[in-house]
């Protein structure tokens, strides 16, 4: 099974039929879908291919500065409305779309919303993003999400903000060994490597193609193993992300079994598909 483990319901993935057409074109079975920045079509593939120039560098720490700025100046629809739209798409294509619930740890009704929507929607995981919702990994909101994920046996995908936040997260992740955390975009990989012996509950998403080099993917595999790496595209943020990352994985110097784990086997296991 091939699964795109990281995509958003906007841009070229706003309309359900366009999502399915792209999955069919690339022979991808399923996609993990989060809310988009807006519930609308449009072009978002403006990310430059910096991974080719800075193949050893974690480009996401720099990209996060722009993401934080945009989060402050742009007006977004209510997050719950955007989550509801992902559920709408899931209902239409439940055999192909896997819903993750994007949570704001600062929300007043966070715990109640998580339980209510999980009961109603049955989402398969939770997403957190420190650049769009500024929170600390030792905050009450984060603990609510981690405890919820532990109790429901679902993973948490987190987009970390800075090296300092990675350090704080490492301490927290150790306290939740029963929770599978997916680190978006290989953020902080080199810092995580220093503590790999105590971090058995981490997985790493290799999106988006323009910012993640094959060299850093290989480093992640070498240090954590292919059974901890997850294919992702971050569609629509980058042009032909899913195709490019599939090609990267297919060209890795790993066994066929390891390649299948990365392309979908790992997610199939932790999501119990």
From TrEMBL:
GO terms for molecular function: hydrolase activity. Residues 69-237 form the Amidohydrolase-related domain. Coiled coil: none annotated. It comes from the Bacteria. It holds the Pfam family Amidohydro_2. SUPFAM superfamilies: Metallo-dependent hydrolases. This is Amidohydrolase-related domain-containing protein. It comes from Desulfotruncus arcticus DSM 17038.
